[in-house]
Amino acid sequence: MTYLLAFSFPAHSENPRVVFAVHEKLPSVEQLAEKTAACLGSETELRLVDQTSSPAWSSYNAVVLVGPQALKGWTFAEKTPAVAVFVSRDAAAEQLPRLASALYLEPPLKRQIALARKIMGEDRPLGVLVQDKAHWKNAGLSSVPLQPSLVTPYFVDQYDNLNRALLDLLKSNHALIGTYDTELYSSTNIKNILITAYRQNKPLIGPSSAYIKAGALATTYSDIDDVSRRLCEVLLTGIKEKVWPEADYNPYFKVRYNQQVGRSLNLLLPDASELAEQLAKEEGEY
């Protein structure tokens, strides 16, 4: 039986019909579909991704694949353009040739570094802990001059273990920048990483909003409003102009702090809303 939930708003014949392919019903996905419908001014629907054989898919202007499970379960047998959301850059990478577009879940590492500089100081050295050089290249920073930028990657595979790499990083840098790597920053490793860092009075920046409660100092993140805003732009551009924006990070985002961690490190944290606006403005200048 098809799972169907429709969100309708005043529609016109020229407004697109969009379907959200989901692995399971979640409140956050329903919110995203509803907000996107309001932006498009037309109807959106939710359907289970395992219903891909249904001929109804072809009646839509676009399908939004929500999350890695929906992306993995999509057969791409339909001609309907597919846009992936709530997926990491790595998860989307294999399917990019067949996707019309994608909106990455995580913030770009350059943005996280810019955030750290605003908090710690522009002239403070920062360390990035990564699995290996391949992960550094995928982060989009392999072409950045390391010395002038005061950003140094520490490759775990070049050390005997994670702790040795972490201690080497903390010895020479004022903050640890986390990358969106669920293996490196797993539930098993994150406690050890945070305890080791704060023993050295060094904060962890990122890698995502989920780590703030665990003890990370700050991060940038995109909430449902930010995702729906960008998704609507992607859909309208692709459907109406027939040119789909390239898969990319979300340009709309917010800043979140762990105020308790900031106080324990005696750090004066800038206003989160003002800082997010400043970072977004600086990104737009490049």
Helix/strand layout:
Elements: E1 5-7, E2 18-22, H1 27-40, E3 44-48, E4 62-66, H2 68-73, E5 82-87, H3 89-93, E6 101-104, H4 109-120, E7 126-130, H5 133-138, H6 146-149, E8 151-155, H7 162-172, E9 175-177, H8 187-199, E10 204-205, E11 218-221, H9 224-241, E12 254-257, H10 259-264, H11 272-284
Parallel strand pairs: 2-3, 2-4, 4-5, 5-6, 7-8, 7-9, 9-10
Antiparallel strand pairs: 1-3, 11-12
Helix pairs in contact: 1-9, 7-8
Written account of the structure:
With 286 residues, this protein is of the alpha/beta class. It has two domains: 5-105 and 223-241, Rossmann fold (3-Layer(aba) Sandwich); 109-220 and 253-284, 3-Layer(aba) Sandwich (Rossmann fold). 38% of the residues lie in helices and 18% in strands. The strands form three sheets. A six-stranded mixed sheet has the order 1-3-2-4-5-6. It has a four-stranded parallel sheet with strand order 8-7-9-10. Helix 7 packs parallel to helix 8 (187-199). The protein is elongated, with a radius of gyration of 21 Å. The protein starts with a strand and ends with a helix. Mean pLDDT is 89; it is low at 6-13. This is ABC transporter substrate-binding protein. It comes from Thalassolituus hydrocarboniclasticus.
